[in-house]
């Protein structure tokens, strides 16, 4: 199943102003808006997750690398609940990873050097699982951009694999 291929821009357009509002909207308010828009648009979880991610990263274009990292971490921690609501399976997580690849290569090229950081942040806030990241790395990445993103994420994957081995040994 291919999620995120025909992303409904209405979700991104609805959520982007909520993620960047001043004063900030709560995660509960953003989630309620996202769920309502998902229901109205009869969207699959994969499309909703990709739309929420696209909205979350919107407005990061004109920031320095340090500002971008800081703001990405802040938004991901604040709104992880919104993303987790739609990250309902490994298939959906894989769809997000592939969508992120395409987005970084096309519309959001300024984020391309921060791809590994984005994966690590989404892992840390429990949006992406270890299994999804490892599957994406070993056999699920989009061929477009594979040569860019696999080397960039090699250290993260090695760390995840070592963590997994340590957990197995302690069991």
**Helical region count?**
8
CATH architecture: Alpha Horseshoe
Mean pLDDT value: 87
Low-confidence stretches: none
| Number of E-state strands | 0
Q: How would you sum up the major sheet? A: none
What is the 3D shape? globular
| End-to-end CA span | 35 Å
Fraction of residues in helix: over 70%
Instruction: Report strand %.
Output: under 5%
Q: What's the CATH class label?
A: Mainly Alpha
| H/E series | HHHHHHHH
How many distinct domains? 1
**Rg, Cα atoms, Å:** 16 Å
By CATH, the topology is: Serine Threonine Protein Phosphatase 5, Tetratricopeptide repeat
Describe this structure in words.
Residues 1-170 form the W2 domain. InterPro entries: ARM-type_fold, eIF5-mimic_regulator, W2_domain. This is Armadillo-type protein. By secondary structure, this protein is an all-alpha fold. The protein has 8 helices and no strands. It has a single domain (9-170), classed as Serine Threonine Protein Phosphatase 5, Tetratricopeptide repeat (Alpha Horseshoe), CATH 1.25.40.180.
Question: Which structural traits does this protein have?
Answer:
171 residues, mainly alpha, Serine Threonine Protein Phosphatase 5, Tetratricopeptide repeat, globular, W2_domain, Armadillo-type protein, eIF5-mimic_regulator, ARM-type_fold
């Amino acid at each position: 199943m291919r999620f995120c291929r025909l992303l409904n821009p209405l979700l991104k357009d609805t959520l982007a102003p909520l993620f960047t509002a001043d004063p900030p909207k709560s995660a509960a308010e953003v989630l309620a808006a996202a769920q309502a828009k998902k229901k109205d648009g009869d969207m699959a979880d994969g499309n909703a997750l990709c739309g929420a991610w696209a909205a979350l990263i919107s407005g990061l274009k004109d920031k320095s690398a340090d500002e971008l990292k800081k703001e990405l971490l802040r938004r991901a921690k604040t709104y992880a609940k919104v993303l987790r609501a739609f990250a309902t399976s490994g298939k959906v997580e894989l769809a997000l990873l592939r969508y992120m690849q395409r987005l970084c290569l096309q519309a959001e090229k300024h984020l391309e050097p921060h791809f590994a950081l984005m994966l690590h942040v989404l892992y840390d806030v429990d949006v992406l699982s270890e299994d999804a990241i490892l599957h994406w790395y070993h056999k699920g990445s989009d061929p477009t951009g594979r040569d860019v993103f696999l080397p960039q994420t090699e250290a993260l994957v090695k760390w995840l694999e070592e963590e997994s081995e340590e957990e197995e040994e302690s069991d």
